[in-house]
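Reviewers asked in the last cycle whether our approach scales beyond single polypeptides. To address this, we selected a multi-component target totalling 587 residues and predicted its structure end to end. The input consisted of the following lines:
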Amino acid sequence: MSARLARALVLVAWAEFFATLWVTGEITSYLGPRTAWVVPFGAITLGITALAYALAAASSRRPAVTLSRAEAAGLLALVVPIVGVALVPDAELGALAASRKATDRAVSPQRPTGGEVSFAEIDYARFSPLFADEVGIEPGRRVQLVGFVSHEDDQPPGMFDLGRFYISCCVADALPTTVTIDARRAAPGTYFATDTWLKVSGPLAKRAGEFVVRADSIVPAEVPQNPYLYLR
Amino acid sequence: MSAQPTPARLPDGAPKLSVLPLGAALAAAVALVAAGRMAGVDEFAGVQTFVLIFASIVIEALPFILLGALMSALIAVYVPERVFARIARLPLALQIPGATLSGFAFPVCECGSVPVARRLITRGMHPAAGISFMLAAPVLNPIVLASTWVAYSGRGVAGEMLAGRAGLGVALAVVGGWAIGRRSGKDVLRARPSETREEDCAHDHDHGHDHEHGAHCAPARGSRTAAFTEHLAGDFLFMGKFIVLGAALAALLQTVVPQSIVGGIAGSPLLAPLALMGLAFMLSLCSEADAFVAVSLTAFPLASQLAFLVFGPILDTKLAILYGGTFRDRFVLRLALVAVPVVLLGSLLFGVFVR
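The resulting structure, written as structure tokens, was:
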């Protein structure tokens, strides 16, 4: 097989993959807004490159170079991510990723976002009373949060964590943020399975230095089209 | 008259691949996807996490490799030989800092700087200067500095962290380039394998290749555009596979290893920066995003966060694989032996003045 043909096919495959991500809006499943531009750039540049490469090959007077096994292995490696995405098209980060990426840190919201209180603001408020005052995070304030369920090993019955991920450039830098939910009033005796998406409403309470939502409403929620939140 | 038998090997001895095994491999890939979906492999949380992180790193990194390959091809085809001859005549004491500071002008992430550096070395720049550029560009580029400023502005130490990152980044680039790249270009770079024979024929001078222009090269190309395309495609495809391998390793580490293992040593002045350097190596983050991750490591002092910010763009999982395919003679080990003490010392010194 011609090495040029194989190389052109891989270039076309990636150009098409980037174009598909771009057209379908699936960029947000992998990248944040600051790097989303790389997908259209990749689609256009690789498309032009593949076309130019194929035209140059077609008009070349040099003898064709045959594909070696080493190069074939390298080119096949390049299409593995495309195969992976085809195998797991609706992948999302959930409780497992949150457990792997969690430390005792908090996502830093930089400055108050205004409007609805966010996951990051509630989480960060436990580290900074000054920030909590500035944003108005205090016991009794009503909040509404949409996120996925995760469970800590030592959580008492009726309590669970509701989480979201903040990303900057791409999913690899995703930072989990969780808020503890006290579900004993809204859903006594109910166990919510890990990775279930819920919309939780209720007032904040302060317990052991942490802000907890004393839920008075817990309803199932659709997974958002874009499940990630963004750092500014 | 009998036909000549088709040789089973290429002129350089590499085994030839016919269409059938390649077609079988493609059919196997399609079958794997179909079988996996039917078996519900995509429902496992570990598989989803791995594939998502793996794909996101590759999707983000490959366009930067492409950008670097674009610049590399421009350098290869459109920059006259006399420019590099002039640069090569400069004393090393001027080449290294000059190459380091030129990182300000190249807004490419760490992936994109590798093909550019390789091309600069093959065109005649001293390898020490080329390596200095490669180490400096991911830290000094304006987008990275702006991200660092934004990330730390909420903590009131934006200026200090920006100055620390840029200053320690410059120091590491200069020291690293000098310590590792003192040899000639031929000894530092790994010769490209036979898959790029056509690209090697596309230019007149390529000091990094040790093959000879022999019978497999046709007469020189007339079209600069064709040569540019050859270089662009060749660099992208060559570097891209190392990114895929590195991304797979990074995704595996992120899926399997909890980041909380470093939390227990946040208070140790010596172990904390080392732990965050290890974390940076494992996470393989883009240098334009890592400041937002670093600032959230609130249990660690600023000096340790600085170590995270300077070490990661120099050496992480995906870069280690990429360097291994580009440079020879245990480049990764030698870089680690230089980078770890320089970053450690620099961050400790930073910690004396900034808390």
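The mean pLDDT of chain A is 87. We regard this as preliminary and will revisit it once experimental data from Aim 1 are available.
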